[in-house]
Amino acid sequence: MSALRQYGALSRRSIVNTIRQPAAIVPALVFPLIFLALTAAALDRSTDLPGFPRVDSFLQFAVATTIVQGSLFGAIAAGADMAKDIEGGFFERLVASPVARTSILVGRLAGAATLGFTQAWIYLGITSLFGLEVEGGAVAMVLISLVSAVVGAGIGSLAVAFGLRTGSNEAVQGAFPLLFVLLFFSSAFFPRTLMEGWFAGVAGANPISHLIEGLRSLVITGLDAGELLNALAVAAGLLVLGIAAAAAALRGRLKAAHG
Amino acid sequence: MAGMSGTAAAPVLAQGLVRRFGDVVAVDGIDLEVREGEVFGFLGPNGAGKSTTVRMLTTLLRPTDGRAVVAGHDVVHEAAAVRRKIGVALQEAAIDPLMTGRELLRLQAILHGIDRPESRKREERLLDTVGLTAAADRRVGTYSGGMRRRLDLALALMHEPVVMFLDEPTTGLDPNSRLALWDEVRELNARGTTVFLTTQYMEEADRLAGRVAIIDEGRIVARGTPAELKARVGEPILRVLLPDGADPARAREILEGFGQDADGDGALAIHLKGGASRMGPVSRALDEAGVPVEGLELHQPTLDDVFHEATGRRLEGADEDQAEEAPRKGRRRGKA
Amino acid sequence: MSAVTWAVARRSLVLIPRLPSTFVPSMVMPIFFTIVFSEGFRGLANLPGFPARETVDWFVPMSAIMGAGFAGITLGMGVARDLEGGFYDRLLSSPAPRPSLITGSLMAAAARSLLPFALVMVVGVLMGASFAGGVVPSVGLLLVAATGVSMITAGWSVAIALRLKTQQSAPLMQVGFFLLMFLSTLQMPLNLLTGWLHDVARINPMTQVLDLARAGFLDLVSWGQVWPGLVALAGMLVVLVGFAARSLQKVIP
């Protein structure tokens, strides 16, 4: 079996496995949407504040955050499934087969990327029904979904690295809230221009802020090379970091088990 | 309740108990009467309706039909009074693994309205009785299966109940723990507590119970003392094992004189008239006729046979019991 | 209070440190919310008509209420654990009066709500909350609101636990509480809410409770500000504790 076919097969497995768990998917897709609806409704007047970016509505401001939350889901699923494969023994079977080692990772990441890509479109679609206008148009939407895919793969590979190291589904799921903590200490929920003091500093240093602001600019201003580049840089950075971590973790596990 | 006055003192009295779960009839008209001070055995395979019946008798489940009076009170209308007088140790030990044994005993005392000084006394006594004094301050999650059952027993005894309900107390226990628990049940009964014991193990019912009711598919199919029930099945069965290829015709002729044909599970067998003491004459007769015999097995009827008679099936766990049984009188095997 | 009520409550409290997986998050979350909301949404204080000068005065009471609400939910999770593990049978088959099983949970919830309350107070002081209406009224009114909310969520979560009989019902318990809070003046005051959310928040009794909780911090201490919150607490308590009691009836054969 050529490497490409292996990649394809394992990717397909990742995606299908995740889709087959509606009990996990539905809440993961629906909750960010409900959260978006509630906060957009509540904070609508805050868009009048001096210093708030010019937006049609708080919805337009917040949708980028929701999309990033959505790619988190696919990312955590990748890590959790990796851990479950280890717990269930499938990982050992893969390793004992002639399958290329890299395809184990590629399969998972392709799954996370696909989910990141798809949920971006789902969210953009649903919010457009509620009056969302993406200033950057169709090109912006394509870019947003691509960046989401990369983010999904990037954080997914970090999650997979964690899954490989711990071999525990529970540990991976337990790490999920930590990602949310990172999200709160950024400009995900409110503009950085309206923050002060140490908190503004932390948010400024947090790469998630730049990722979200980049995606946000595609929605509220249009195609701005500078902002977009920031977002791409963060996404790419996450991917590189994540793949390195995952590769190292895979090597570590294989060495521990097989010498 | 009209007509019940003469038996109102019976610790457990059930008339026509029925319990349905939707379309499924788990308990289909059960009548029971337990006498004061006895150990009453309720024997049947898994799924027969034993636990459901016990839950009705212990007020944890409402009967769909019929009535029951336990410790002098109706289980439906005077449930609280019943609970004050009964002790319950169900199949799944109802414990909290995060609490210590002593904490659970203390809580049990409070639930039953026992004041602190009295509760302290009983805690120590019960821990001693079930042999858990050393482990009392450890979390129950660290206890073995046998220890948990014993704690469950202690908890059930805290308020000094008149009737004790034990639902499958030794299921899943290793043989030593099982024997230890049997001793505790005997002691408990010796001190005057009436015991209602449910079990799927015929050995348990045979050894502990004064009277037994056998339940299958929601109905009682036999009742009486273990001895009575076994006697009803008939004479013991004698199996004659012949060497491979031997002609059974001659052996059969001889055996005809000693009793009727029986189901020998593949081997020649008869219901041995006159019981075990006739084994000698059978052996001599076969010997004199020159019939080569590999072995003679005497199989005393068991409660499992009683069950088989009544239902055509065997109790689950019966094989397990036979493996554990000590060698019986009269069993001689030529084979290793 | 009967001995059984005390025993049920005491058991719940004793078990807190023995279940670290729920204990630690319940302590961290209220502190986290106080900091992140007060700092992240600092700009809200500049909105004309915003009732607080600093967002910390607005969000400290909210975080205490959130923490108290989650403390109440742990009681329902405990009942679910007992039902799954079979321990609840022991409680039910004892002669203990049924109501004391519920009142014991309520007492434990109120006691448990004190911890997030205290933590949020400490963080609030460190972040410069002004206690504009006076320290005693601020803390006192918030305490009343917090303990009330913890008993309300205890009633809710215990009812869910008794009906669904599984620890998997925990997300449902949490979501119910979240919605109740987010459909009210959790983030924005009523005068700054628009559209459908304004209409919903206006009739949501939690809005009155949050008003009560914030009264001291916003220097709005008056009977008019306070009595609707007390009525709302009492009303929700009756409804949800009643829900729990009816659910217990269903479990009893």
Question: How are the elements arranged and paired?
Answer:
The complex is a heterotrimer of chains A (259), B (336) and C (253).
Chain A: H1 3-19, H2 22-42, H3 58-88, H4 90-96, H5 101-129, H6 137-166, H7 169-184, H8 197-205, H9 207-220, H10 225-258
Helix pairs in contact in A: 1-5, 2-3, 3-5, 3-6, 3-7, 3-9, 5-6, 6-10, 9-10
Chain B: E1 12-21, E2 24-34, E3 39-43, H1 50-57, E4 65-70, E5 73-74, H2 79-85, E6 86-89, H3 101-111, H4 116-129, H5 145-157, E7 163-167, H6 175-190, E8 194-199, H7 202-208, E9 211-216, E10 219-224, H8 226-233, E11 237-241, H9 248-256, E12 259-261, E13 268-272, H10 279-288, E14 295-299, H11 303-311, H12 318-324, E15 332-333
Parallel strand pairs in B: 3-8, 3-9, 6-7, 7-8
Antiparallel strand pairs in B: 1-2, 1-4, 4-5, 9-10, 11-13, 11-14, 12-13, 14-15
Chain C: H1 3-15, H2 20-40, H3 55-85, H4 87-92, H5 98-126, H6 135-164, H7 170-182, H8 195-203, H9 205-215, H10 223-251
Distinctive features:
heterotrimer, A: mainly alpha, 10 helices, B: 336 residues, alpha/beta, Rossmann fold, 2 domains, five-stranded antiparallel sheet, elongated, disordered N terminus
Overall description:
The complex is a heterotrimer of chains A (259), B (336) and C (253). Chain A is mainly alpha-helical and 259 residues long. In chain A, 80% of the residues lie in helices and 0% in strands. Chain A has one domain (3-258). Chain A is elongated and about 60 Å long. The model of chain A has no long low-confidence stretch (mean pLDDT 89). With 336 residues, chain B is an alpha/beta fold. Chain B has 2 domains: 9-230, 3-Layer(aba) Sandwich (Rossmann fold); 234-333. Chain B is built from 12 helices and 15 strands. Chain B has helices at residues 50-57, 79-85, 101-111, 116-129, 145-157, 175-190, 202-208, 226-233, 248-256, 279-288, 303-311, 318-324, and strands at 12-21, 24-34, 39-43, 65-70, 73-74, 86-89, 163-167, 194-199, 211-216, 219-224, 237-241, 259-261, 268-272, 295-299, 332-333. In chain B, helix 4 packs antiparallel against helix 5 (145-157). Chain B is elongated and about 80 Å long. Chain B starts with 11 loop residues before the first strand and ends with a strand. Chain C is mainly α and 253 residues long. Chain C contains 10 helices and no strands. The chains are: A mainly alpha (259), B alpha/beta (336), C mainly alpha (253). Chains in contact: A-C, B-C. The A-C interface holds A 27, 35, 38-39, 41-46, 48-52, 177, 181, 184-185, 189-191, 194-197, 199, 203 and C 25, 32, 36, 39-44, 46-47, 171, 182-183, 186-188, 192-197.
